[in-house]
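User: Glutathione S-transferase. Structure?
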Amino acid sequence: MAPITLYFLQTSRAIRTAFLLEALGLDYNVEYFDREADGSTPDAFRKTIAVGRAPAIKDGDLVLVESAAIAEYLCERYDKDSKLMPTDTAMRSQVRIWMSASEGTFLIHALAIMYGSGAAPESAEQLAAGLTPQVHRDFDWLESELKKGSGKFLVGDQLTAADTMMGFSIAFILKMGLGTKGKEWPSVNLWLANVESTPAYQRAVQKTGHTLG
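Assistant: Predicted structure:
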C-alpha cells in the first residue's frame, strides 16, 4: 500500500495532521507548500486541493480535508490500540469535545479578532475589546479542566487526538496575542509545553518545517 500523502501548507492547521500521523507511527509523504509573501495560500496549493484549505491527505484513492475529519478517519482506520481515541465512552466523548472546541470555541473567537484587524482602527479596537473577555473565558475553562487532572494531557494520562487538535489552536492564539493580553494561564502553558515536547510532535515539526513565524 502506498503511504499517505499529507498536503502541508506552512503556518497552518496541517501540523495537527502531521502530529497525529507521527503519534500513530504511520508512514507518510509530505507535499509541502509555502505561503506567499503576503501570507496567502499559493495558487499551486489551490490547484492541488480544490477547496484550498489545509490540511488535506490522500490515502489510496480517498482525499480528505478538514483536520477534525482527518483525525477521526485516521484514528478509526489505523488506531488499532485506541491510543489516540479511547474506547471508553466517557473518555472518547471528552476527546471529541476538545476536538470540536479547538475550532468552534477557541479559534472562532480569536480569529475574529485577527480578521477584524484589517478594518478601520476604531472598529478593530472595538471588536477586540468585545471579544477579549470571551477569549479569556475560553482559556479559563481550559485552565480549570487541566487542573482537574495531571495537567500533562487533556484526557487521561496520555496523548490523545484532543491534544493534537487543541495544540495548534492554543499555540496560534498565544503566539498572535489574540485576546490573551492582560492575563496568564500557567496550567495551559505547562500543558502546551508538554505536548510540544512529545517525540511525535518533535518529529512532525522536523519533517514538515512547521513554524508559526
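The longest strand covers residues 4-9. Helices lie at 14-24, 43-48, 67-78, 89-116, 121-147, 161-176, 186-196, 199-208.
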